[in-house]
Amino acid sequence: MPSYSFAASPLPTAKETHRPKPAPLRSPMSRAGSACVALMLGSALAGCAVGPDYAGPPKLALPSHWSTNTAPHRDAGKLDRWWLRLRDPLLSRLIEEAIEANPDVAKAKAAVREARATLQQTTAGLFPSVSGTASVTSNKSSAGSSSVLVDSAPYSLHQASFDSSWELDLFGGTQRSIEAAAHGAQSAEEDLRDSLVTLIGDVAAYYVEARGYQARIALAQRTAVSQRDTEKLTRSKYEAGSGNAVDLAKATAQAASTEANVPTYQAALAADVHRLGILLGRPPGGVASSMAQSAPVPAPRMPLPMGLPADLLMSRPDIASAERKLAQATAKIGAAEADRYPAVSLTGSVGTSALRAGDLAKYSSVSWSVGPSITVPVFDAGKRLATVRIAEAQRDQAFATFHSTLLTALEDVENALVSLSRERVRATKLTEAARNYREAARLSRSLFETGSASFIDVLDAERSLYSAEDSLIQSKVSAAKDYIALAKALGGGWSDPVDVSTPVIVDTNTGPHFREAQK
């Protein structure tokens, strides 16, 4: 059902004031007495609001420390530019380029601009709106009896008017909408920061993986060369009559098996390099030349500053964004609730008409009206109440999202801490194993050359050495990726201001112009 509107009686128009023996004109200010009363009432109730007031982030039970018993760092939360701890200049340059050109970051910037424009649009609801119109019409009329028709001379009528309206925010509905839009803008800014955290972590992870595959390719190629040397030695023994065909076949097979790993690693390396190009906003091969020369797997040499679990509320942008969305949903309840109360508006218009444009400013041709109006919801079959219930349910969903985001963040940190600490222990053991297998392979090869050891010993030692060294490279990659995952989980990211004011597409020739044919 539609709402019913009640308007104040209109003030006398200019035509009425020109009747014979008119009463003395009253002051326009006294004519607008009721409007002034409504204005003062609106000012008195400027602080009035309906709906729940947001009291800040919900107080949820959080652990007092991390399960690994990591001591809080005195610089906890200082995770800006954490990737510099990996000490890889090329990685740092790629990250900076990605921040400038990544499409997801550009999308997040546009979302911030949209949210800020929405806030500006909503704030405009607190102010009156004024519109003006002007017209010039040519007129001619005829009068007379059926036998005699008299035409009047044609004339032009000039008209101009200004209309204004102002809805008083008596119950804070507009203020609640502004509050919701402001929280939405803050959430969009946190989403931008979150996209930067994700982007930086992805670039670093794919870069580390690529360096790992380069190291594994180099290892496979070195090992294959060594195994081909063993094959030659076995063939020489076989041709000299001191070896057998079985040993020769096994030597050849082992070298071929190792060489077969190279194409697999090369394909994986190409995929990582292609992904890096996409993250930098380039074609897939955009960073191939930069990554052509092999480099060591980045190894973190400094620990990350660890704080307390409660610090995630401030450092993790996805948590901050979810909290701002909860505040936004809470404000929307008040906006929906205010729609159930009466709405008071002030409307006014000033118009003038004359036969000549120069007479438009004369008082005798001026008419005006001003007065308040009130709209009272009478019956809507529960539509407005249902809107409030919808807003409340959406607030509860936002709270559940915030709670889930916080728990996921705690899980991310705990997983990264455990993985990093365990991977470091594993790398230590793999380093020891590779060192001993390297010595075993050297000794078994020497003994085989002198005939003091069987070929099986050489084959087993070389296979074990290759496996241990390959596992060590993978462990270094895993440790670096765990370090990166921990930095992401703690909310580390870009610290410099990000310019969101410049759109990706800058429109030109947007004023009045002849439209070109669609392409």
TrEMBL record:
- Keywords attached to this entry: Lipoprotein, Membrane, Palmitate, Transmembrane, Transmembrane beta strand
For this protein, the record's InterPro entries field holds: MdtP/NodT-like, OMP_efflux
Q: What is its main location?
A: membrane
Q: Where is this region: Disordered?
A: 1-28
Where in the cell does this protein reside?
Answer: Cell membrane
- What is its membrane topology? Lipid-anchor
Question: Which superkingdom heads the taxonomic lineage of this protein's source?
Answer: Bacteria
Q: Which family does it belong to?
A: Belongs to the outer membrane factor (OMF) (TC 1.B.17) family.
The cross-references to PANTHER family, in alphabetical order and at most eight, read: OUTER MEMBRANE CATION EFFLUX PROTEIN, OUTER MEMBRANE PROTEIN-RELATED
Protein's name in the database = Multidrug efflux system outer membrane protein
